[in-house]
């Protein structure tokens, strides 16, 4: 199907792949309305699939106002599966299914893929034409018993498409709302005693340290808020349209409570599905990691998600909505880690490739060391 440009805020193929691997699911489904970028992202995922071995697959190609064709990506064999019918109501779904194309090529291909070498098979895409052929739908389900499936699935009110997207063994990315309605608290209220000054406004590779947290969390969340004691930090955030809670209360629990309250008030009746608490002093934290945490949380709304390098767990930490009452009622001086320790069985980790992503800045020497690491490795 037609490839589209990637708008800001949409997860990248790498982000989706990292999230999928952390999820433990078997299949990977990209869904969304027409023009949401399913085909573009599926194409971007193919190099990752091929790292596991040979990959077979089906693509569909539309000739607007004429026909739709199904093609074997390996051999180039194709068959017509849809014919334009001007009598059908528009603007979408004006193709009449050509069942013979599915029966003559589509079904045999899927059966062949199930017997061939390789772990993965891809289908781009599965939509209303495909649902018109029961034999093709059964062949897809049979294939999923034998191979892992990566598929672009059109978001439509059709039972087969909805059943695919509800499968417990499928990691489903809804490209119309990939991260759900999650919020983010940027925790920028440290006193900076060990640093000896306003740490978050210190220059790191020529930019204020906090700017890296603002960049890493941009374009992912339904709402963000920065909690800070620093007037300079507040002004920087406000210039970038990030709301600020300015406070002088003494405890870490105050930062959590004030930030979460502000986000919930901002969300109103729509509410939030979860919240990421992001320290503002981890300059090597990657946006890919933040987006992957949000994707994982959208898939598993009962889990607390955090990044990890090997056995070393770190921040930021994503809490689902069920944890909000406890976060709002934290004892004085306790942070969100108290909730993490209370529910260890609910904690899941997203692996990161570099330990420096989890490193924070406490001292000027630490700032210099991370700046050197950025120049060498990032």
TrEMBL record:
The secretion signal range is none
InterPro entries in the cross-refs: MobA-like_NTP_Trfase, Nuc-triphosphatase_THEP1, Nucleotide-diphossugar_trans, P-loop_NTPase
Domain named MobA-like NTP transferase: residues: 184-345
Question: Any stretches that span the bilayer, and where are they?
Answer: none
What keywords were assigned to this record?
Answer: Transferase
Q: Could you give a GO molecular-function term held by this entry?
A: ribonucleoside triphosphate phosphatase activity
The record ties this protein, via CDD domains, to:
GT_2_like_f (cd04182)
Looking at the keywords, is Transferase present? Answer: yes
Q: Which Pfam families match?
A: NTP_transf_3, NTPase_1
Supply the name of the protein: NTP transferase domain-containing protein
Q: Which organism is it from?
A: Candidatus Gemmiger avistercoris
> Taxonomy-wise, where does this protein's organism fall, top ranks first?
Bacteria, Bacillati, Bacillota, Clostridia, Eubacteriales
